[in-house]
Amino acid sequence: MKRGSSIFYGALLLTGTNFLLRLAGMSFQVYLSGRIGAAGVGLLQLIVSVRALAFAAGSAGIRTGTLCLCAEALGRKRPLSPVLSGCLKYGLLFSVPTAAGLWLLSPRLAAEWIGDMAALPSLRASAWFLPVLCLLGVMTALFSAAGRLRTLVAVEFLEQGCAIAVTFLLLSRWSGTGSACLAVTLGGGCSAALSLWILWLLRRTGPRTASPPYRRIFTMALPVGAADSLRAGLNTLENFLVPRRLALFGGAASAMANYGVLHGMVFPVLMFPAAILASLAELLAPELSRCAHRQGRVRVRYLTRQGLRAAFLFGVCMGGVLFAAGRPLGQLLYRSETAGIYIRLYAPLVPMLYADGIVDAMCKGLGQQSANARYNLFTSLLDVILLWFLLPRYGMAGCYFSFAAVHLVNFALSLRRLVRTAELRLSPLPAGKALLCAAAAAFLTGRLLPAEEAGVPAAAAAYLLALWTLWLVFRVVGRQDWLWLRGMLFQ
């Protein structure tokens, strides 16, 4: 089997898994939003943000370190037991003190930062489960490095099912926003503990013939952990800023509701189709790394160009679908006109967001992780500054401007780095033609099928039919694309 075919079928497996898991997660999010309302979803998002920061600090980059060291040990045909032992101890060394700190700081975080003591039980439950989540990251990295994707897929399905089942069970007995957030936290923690136990039983590490490589673990994981923690801290600050600064514009209750709609309802819908590209990105990165080390510059340029093209065209398709079907989709999923308006508003940014994800993955595959980290930190800091000044004056319009500007800057910097590293020559003409066709297709769909009369399937089908017709007429896609796809499938 050729390499391209191997990438395609690997991506197909991961895509199916990611798609089903995201579908289950988004369906549960829809149920939860109906149960606790937009303000409750906003509170849950703030709790998740704190947990993400604690996880970044507690894991301290150990997943990346485990992945690299296990892959190296397998390449040299050495047992994995010393590496696993050292990585687990490293994970406990950082996660236990971080969990203790989160437990002690939970009352202050709930009262002063989140502004709602209903978040306190969830924060303390997050502290209890933090070491489990960090150790689970070590085990999933071990299985990824060993190429045991099917085992990981099965465990991920079991974990998602357990999380939903436990949360539903608790929600059937508890009521109130704080109790609902605690149910979600306990469901995720219990499912993580189950996954960790199963992966521990299924591990294959060989005999322990040497002492753990502690120095290499620290050298490899700590810099990654520091960068992850800094970025997670900025992201958490962004999430806290939005409701707080919005409250200066329209009141606290309205601010939390708008925050919940945007981050808990709209963004999951916008990024749901990206499951397909996430799988492609996960497989493109190591393939580009192999090609770069083998001096395969021609294949690097080919994979980079095709990855960019596939991500951008797919983003144009999905962005147009979300724009055409935004309002009926908001009503269908959340019974919310506001969610539909925001989906439609943010949909034109989808091609850039999807392409940016692929660009970041390909940059990492070509050894540009440090540059990516610098860009992400810079744009996160820029986002904090823009949100601080714009939200009190312009409200949600300021939030939109900040989001669009920051992601555009990040995309431009990352794309520039990728083009230079891969020695690409890109013409803006194909992208311009694709976007003009998309705008024309959206206009035709809106005129012939008004949003208030269209259902989601009708609006999506009408837009895609118009778009693909225009693409074929103006040769945005053509015979070479079908030949490439056939080669991926059958060679």
Short recap of the structure:
This protein is mainly α.
Provide a descriptive summary of the structure in words.
Helices cover 86% and strands 0% of the residues. It is built from 18 helices and no strands. The N terminus is likely disordered.
The number of helical segments is 18
> What share of residues is helical?
over 70%
Structural class: mainly alpha
The largest β sheet comes out as:
none
Q: Over all CA atoms, what is the radius of gyration?
A: 23 Å
Mean pLDDT comes to 85
Question: How would the global form be characterised?
Answer: globular
Instruction: Work out the number of β strands.
Output: 0
Order of helices and strands: HHHHHHHHHHHHHHHHHH
Beta-strand residue fraction = under 5%
Q: How far do the termini sit from each other?
A: 7 Å
Show unreliable segments.
1-5
Key traits:
single chain, 491 residues, mainly alpha, 18 helices, 86% helix, 0% strand, globular
Write the layout of secondary structure elements.
Elements: H1 3-59, H2 62-75, H3 81-114, H4 120-145, H5 149-171, H6 177-202, H7 214-250, H8 252-271, H9 275-293, H10 297-324, H11 326-334, H12 337-346, H13 350-365, H14 369-394, H15 396-422, H16 428-448, H17 456-473, H18 479-490
